[in-house]
Amino acid sequence: MAEYTVQHSCGHEVKHRYDGPETERRQREQWLRSKPCQICHHAEQIDTAAKQRDELNLPQLVGEEADIRWAEVVRAKAITHNRKFYARVTRKPDVASQEVLHEAIVQAADDAMRELSSQTAASWWIDHRFDVIEHVRKATIAAVEPLMNGGE
Ligand SMILES: [Zn+2]
To answer: Where are the domains of the chain?
Structure first.
């Protein structure tokens, strides 16, 4: 496999190994040149997560240094997603008869959102990285289901 030195968008030169017909190699090189190198990409993600922590007004995480950095990325994504869902699901209903349902939703969504925002253990975010995106939605469904099945 041939080795090529590619200058990435961040300015760093990195050696890459790839093969294939010339057009494919050119495309590959162009694609690589348009992106920052892996280290810069990683650093960018950490920067973004730290900025988001301030913007989202979240507490400092606790845990191992490396865990915190990873958890920070997981959390920023999850909080943003859950807050969007929260805003949608807690919107006031047009129909007055849905008010009981609405109150139950707001209550459950509030609790779930508060639980999420106050979670400061880096290890918790890493453990829950695959399902935390759905945290508020799951809590809301769990709260609403008994009301739906109970008739009315
Ligand atoms: Zn770089």
So the answer is: 2-33, 59-149
Contact 144, 101 (CB under 8 A): yes
Q: Buried b vs exposed e over 13-49: b needs ≥16 C-beta within 10 Å? A: eeeeeeeeeeeeeeebbeebeeeebeebeeeeeeeeb
Residues 138, 144: Cα–Cα separation, whole Å: 10
- What separation in Å is there between the alpha carbon of 66 and the centre of ligand 1? 20
The pTM of this model reads 0.62
Reported residue count of the chain is: 152
Beta bridge partners of 101: none
- Distance from the CA of 42 to the center of ligand 1, in angstroms? 9
92-139 pLDDT, tens digit per residue, is 877 777 788 889 999 999 999 999 999 999 999 999 999 999 999 999
Task: Give residue 13 CA to ligand 1 midpoint distance, Å.
Answer: 8
